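Task 17 of the worksheet. Students: predict the tertiary structure of the chain below and write it out as structure tokens. Keep your answer in the requested format; marks are given for formatting as well as content.
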Amino acid sequence: MILVDDKDIELVKESDIGVAHNMSANIKSAKGVSPALKMYDEGVRIGLGTDGPMSGNTLSTIDEFGQVAKVHKLVNQDRAAMPPYKVIDMATIGAARALHMEDKIGSLEPGKLADIIVVDTKAPNMVPVYNPYSALVYSAYATNVRHSIVDGKVLMEDRNVLTVDEEAIRKEAVDFTNIVRDTLKEKGEVIQ
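Model answer:
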């Protein structure tokens, strides 16, 4: 949803299609900037996403926040464009709407799955917090997430993942990285 016009946006809205806005992937690929703010303002089901390590080098939605806000200000040549509350809305209930799951996830309400992160607001990069939306969008890093709860189950507590062996996963990732690197080297290709 990068190279779209008003007619395309209207068709997406009429068809009730969900859109994932993956800013880091768009920046890295240099394909352009999605008119995500226009889609958001026109009621399209749009949420923030990541395209993963091969296209955006991130799996962190939090790391998308500042880029989304700043790039849309630049593209629209408007300091007020893409205010922080819209970024957070797109990351939470907006993402749920894009998946057609807003009745189950995306906001803290009775009857919905309890998916929560707790952000350390005492970390140096988070002080001071004048506005929680602005602090999350412009100051927070993924490393500021202290606890993570999914469907009411604590998955990470005090930055310690409780459900998997992090060291084993890191080792597996490094081993796989070496396989990819060797394969590309044999083909004469370079990882960018």
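Marker's comment: The first strand starts at residue 18 and ends at 21. The two ends are 24 Å apart (CA to CA).
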